[in-house]
Amino acid sequence: MKLLMFITEAHMADPTVDALVEQGFRVTRLASTGGFLRKGNTTLLVGVEENAVERAIVIAKRSAPGSLVITLELDRYERL
Prior knowledge:
This protein is of the alpha+beta class. The protein has a single domain, classed as Alpha-Beta Plaits. 30% of the residues lie in helices and 40% in strands. It is built from two helices and four strands, in the order βαββαβ. The chain has helices spanning 10-22, 53-63, and strands spanning 2-9, 27-34, 39-48, 68-73. Strands 2-3-1-4 form a four-stranded antiparallel β-sheet. Helix 1 crosses helix 2. The model has no long low-confidence stretch (mean pLDDT 91).
């Protein structure tokens, strides 16, 4: 299992979330601020199986070109 963190410009978040959800991904959306001009960003958290990582990245790249993606290995996760 992997955790993908997409950091997009705020105005690109809605189409990206819509595209990911349409393809069956579950997305958590967080408002964030940062960068040189302190502009509004949105961080999207998407938990995916290893074989779906590239598919999620391609979807986000089409919806929000120029976004940053961080991929983290999830050794363990559980619902509490």
